[in-house]
Every structure is written in C-alpha cells, then in structure tokens.
Amino acid sequence: MENEEKYMNVAIEEAKKARSIGEVPIGAIIVLNGKIIAKASNRRETEQNAVAHAEIIAIQEACRTLGTWRLENAELYVTLEPCPMCSGAIILSRIKKVVYGASDPKAGCAGTLMNLLSDARFNHQSEVVGGVLADECGELLSQFFRELRRKKKG
C-alpha cells in the first residue's frame, strides 16, 4: 500500500498539471520494475481529441519508451477509474495491474459500472486496486467542476 500511495501521489501531480491548463484533472503514470516509465495528464480539451485521456497518452509513451506494445509487467496508476476506452487500451497493452484513486460512477469500467479489466472473456485480465488516495483524487475533480460551474454562472 505504501508504494501504491507513493505512485498515486505522482499521478496526482500529473492531474494538477492538467488542471493548471484548464483540463479535467486526471493524471496517470506507468511503472515497470519500480521505475516510472511514463507520465501523462488529460489533454482532451487542449488537443480537441476525444482519445487524449491520461491513460492512453501514458500507454503510448510507455510503448515508445520500451519499443513494444506489450506492457506485460507494467502497473498503471491513475487518479480516476478508467473509462471503457481506456480499459480497452489497458487490456490490449497487457498491463499487469491497475491502481486507481476515485471511482467514476458515470463511466468506470474497473468495477463501478462494470469490470472490463477482470472479465475472463478477454484474453488478458489486469489486477485492479481501487480507492488509493480516493479522497484526494476525488477532491481534485470536485474542485475543478465547482469552479467550472461558478465561472459559467458568473
């Protein structure tokens, strides 16, 4: 649990980078053999790209770093439970373990709405650990959306 919190804190720093540029504050990192090999934050608004989620960007960076699409022994730490798209990318890249912070009641596919990551019908399953620093991760999102609503009313 200590390492999970340590790495989640790095993902939270990535989420704060996203917030600082007006993005939904979601951050992700990928760890292999105790070393961070990829870091990313949400860039959907910046890039006007529907697939520019933190997890997707981190997976792409990790694949470039390792020179392979197979991330079999890697661990992904993300501040928000992965959506269906990101869960699919996690399965296809063979990530061993996914650790997330806040649950996503609207799109969470690591146990909240469904659990794509552990579905035995796929040819790969990932270990899932949810709720690591959930309050901190959730508060980042809550603050962001409160501020956004305040600005829209303003």
UniProtKB/TrEMBL annotation:
Cofactor binding note? Binds 1 zinc ion per subunit.
- Residues binding Zn(2+), per UniProt: H53, C83, C86
Q: Which InterPro entries match?
A: APOBEC/CMP_deaminase_Zn-bd, CMP_dCMP_dom, Cytidine_deaminase-like, MafB19-deam, tRNA_aden_deaminase
Q: Which UniProt keywords apply?
A: Hydrolase, Metal-binding, tRNA processing, Zinc
Q: Which Gene3D superfamilies match?
A: Cytidine Deaminase, domain 2
Q: Does the keyword Hydrolase apply?
A: yes
Entry keyword annotation includes Lyase: no
Annotated ranges, domain CMP/dCMP-type deaminase: 2-127
Q: Which superkingdom, per the lineage?
A: Bacteria
What EC number(s) would the UniProt record show? 3.5.4.33
- HAMAP family listed in its UniProt record: tRNA_aden_deaminase
Quaternary structure and interacting proteins, as annotated: Homodimer.
Q: What is this protein called?
A: tRNA-specific adenosine deaminase
In which organism is this protein found?
Siminovitchia thermophila
The organism's taxonomy opens as: Bacteria, Bacillati, Bacillota, Bacilli, Bacillales
